Amino acid sequence: MAFSHQTRKQAIQQMKAEQLDLLIIGGGITGAGVALQASAAGMKTGLIDMQDFAEGTSSRSTKLVHGGLRYLKTFDVEVVADTVQERAVVQGVAPHIPKPQPMLLPIYDEPGATFNMFSVKVAMDLYDRLANVTDPRYTNYLLQKEEVLEREPQLQKENLLGGGVYLDYKNNDARLVIENIKRAAQDGAQIASHVKAETILHNDQGKVNGVRAKDLLTGETFDIQARLVINTSGPWSDFVRDLDKREDTPEQMRPTKGVHLVVDAKKLSVPQPTYFDTGDQDGRMIFVIPRENKTYFGTTDTDYHGDYDHPTVTKEDVDYLLEIVNRRYPGVGLTIQDIEASWAGLRPLIASNGGSDYNGGNNGSLSDQSFEKVIDVVSKYQRKEASRWDVEDVLSNLESTLSENESNPSAVSRGSSLETAKDGLITLAGGKLTDYRKMAEGAVKLVRDRLADEFDQTYTLIDSKRYPVSGGEIDPANVEEELDKIAQIGIEKGLSKNDATYLADLYGSNTQKVYALMDELEAAPGLSLKETLSLHYALEEEMTLRPIDFFWRRTNHLLFMRDALDDIKQPVIDEMARYYQWSDEEKKHQMKELEAAIAQSDLADLK
């Protein structure tokens, strides 16, 4: 089925005409997950977002389906177990998106270090057991100092003890969102981007029964009636709750800003993702990750009080990351002029929860006695001298001080919150990208129960652990082989191996639909056939309305293919103008908007 600008018009008309069972406000990863599960259960589902899908937060992550190894520093085993188990579920329902990519963790002998060589091995062994990592290609191992430097000769040698290698997964965050959205639309959900909720509506009994919304493309204001409304707007959760004039709700969110910078791999060469302490004894760690002939690094973690719609990278952000990376790679000498692209995003953290953030949070300090007990029992367990129950008994009785560190934004919890206001508005907030399916499952169960209790509507939920997203209908146990077969079909139709592989990796089982476009399309002026196919698929099947949607969230051109972007931006706009029949004035407007986004990513103002 198509999922295009025409679909958007139809969805708006449908939402205006009938009462929904569930209206979702927010089209990031959380709202997308809720939409998939609700629509698959047969609920009349609608979703609106005031921007493009994933534009606000879910395209601005570290782009990992992260396992949370550093939680084991404070032996927060439950968090790690939940995270790695859920990561396996995400890989199963979207096998073409998360890809295994072992992580290197250099260990330095310095004050405040997260791990030493002994504790990192204990942590990695426990991590592998929790994640059920048994494939010898991905089980953890230690490296001596010389072996670490052989892999990454640019790394800081001083105080380097060695390193550990453990399994992690790279991710395409925006693709994960759009594939959930497309599956929801395929199952009947009415979905429209660039539609903003302006007022929460109530019935005569004072219960929420919809929203007044505005189509930001046409200026039309209209009502959407829905039995239930759920707020999944991430950092904007408090803003949406403020639209509910019947409720006086306290602020819930404490968003923090994370920044990532991209350089050419020739300037900073790393063979695999690398994760290390900042060296500032601040309890935080930094990622350095190779991707598509580039290397990106981050992240910062600072309280944010600015414009939520347009978080920006500041000079302080750049200086902070460059100082750390240049210290850990002392011969590289990166400057701001080396930065090819960047992004800033907000994390939807909940202020009231104690706990640890993936990037430096502290669940509390263990006493020396408790720490020694844990090391002892885990060591015995590895020697088969203690049972799993012995380990769990020690872990459940740790002496620690748990409290939120108000001065440290990194200590704010990545936990989620599912709340229902007195007038019925549901808010699902917080959480990590890795947990999106599990969060959505809890919310949809609540929706199911309320629809049954309050409206006598009965629905049977799907098993969302086994329900693939759009493009995910391939065997998760044989991803590489299946994608190779899909790529081979493209090669047989005349594409180069590189182009066919690129398309297969991006679209998974949907690649056949992309190939089908070859029967009716030729390469557009200034574009390769691969680029033309990708663009038209994005227009016809992924509700791509603007060039920036294509260059950032449907593909990674803006972030990781910056050196090719200048050559194809005008041809893409020309082709989109032909498709949408834009006027010359509209073409100029779209180019101006794209150029502004590129300049912001380029850090043009700072340079």
Low-confidence stretches: 354-365, 399-413
Fourth CATH level, the homologous superfamily of the largest domain:
D-Amino Acid Oxidase, subunit A, domain 2
Number of helices: 19
Q: What is the β-strand count?
A: 20
Mean pLDDT: 91
Helix amount: 25-40%
Overall tally of domains:
3
Indicate the proportion of strand residues.
Answer: 15-25%
What's the CATH class label of the largest domain? Alpha Beta
Amino- and carboxy-terminal Cα gap: 45 Å
Structural class comes to alpha+beta
Largest sheet data: 8 strands, mixed
Anisotropy-based shape: globular
CATH topology group of the largest domain = D-Amino Acid Oxidase, Chain A, domain 2
Q: What is Rg?
A: 24 Å
Oligomerization status of the protein chains: single chain
Task: Give the CATH architecture of the largest domain.
Answer: 2-Layer Sandwich
Characterise this structure:
This is Alpha-glycerophosphate oxidase. Its cofactor is FAD. One of its GO terms (molecular function) is glycerol-3-phosphate oxidase activity. Belongs to the FAD-dependent glycerol-3-phosphate dehydrogenase family. Helix 9 packs antiparallel against helix 10. The chain folds into three domains: 184 residues, 3-Layer(bba) Sandwich (FAD/NAD(P)-binding domain); 232 residues, D-Amino Acid Oxidase, subunit A, domain 2 (D-Amino Acid Oxidase, Chain A, domain 2, 2-Layer Sandwich), CATH 3.30.9; 125 residues, Helicase, Ruva Protein, domain 3 (Orthogonal Bundle), CATH 1.10.8. Helices cover 39% and strands 18% of the residues. Strands 1, 2, 9, 10, 11, 12, 19 and 20 form an eight-stranded mixed sheet that branches. Strands 13, 14, 15, 16, 17 and 18 form a six-stranded antiparallel sheet that branches. It is globular and about 65 Å long. The chain is of the alpha+beta class and 607 residues long. The relative contact order is 0.14.
